[in-house]
Write a structure and sequence with these properties.
single chain; about 120 residues; mainly alpha; 6 helices; about 75% helix; about 5% strand
């Protein structure tokens, strides 16, 4: 069967190909906007805690081992706070993969915060 010079079967195949390409493009573009996992949020928030600890003068004279132990203790204290749990839950609901990648590559707390806006 022809319609204005087009054969139905090849035209249908062409439409199917275009639809497939459009679908794949849409999936690959939305991949950057997917929500993050709980583990992603923990990693991102740990990064922020670590960056904000850098200004603490009591850490200046510590050995690497002492510094890591102090960081772990500070992370544990932060994670016990109700506000941390609220932020973590909000992260899981709202933060995209693109924001996560940005925050994890941030060099300071201001850059990190700018990623999440």
């Amino acid at each position: 069967m022809t319609y204005s010079g087009f054969r139905a079967a090849p035209f249908a195949a062409l439409l199917a190909s275009v639809a497939s390409v459009a679908c794949l493009a849409s999936v690959s573009l939305t991949g950057c906007n997917r929500k993050v996992t709980p583990a992603d949020c923990t990693k991102m928030l740990d990064r922020y805690i670590d960056m904000t600890m850098g200004d603490d003068p009591s850490f200046k004279n510590m050995t690497q081992g002492q510094l890591e132990a102090a960081r772990e203790m500070k992370r544990a204290l932060k994670k016990a706070e109700r506000s941390y749990l609220q932020v973590h839950d909000q992260c899981e609901r709202e933060v995209t993969k693109k924001e996560l990648d940005c925050a994890l590559s941030a060099q300071n707390p201001n850059e990190w915060e700018a990623c999440i806006d």
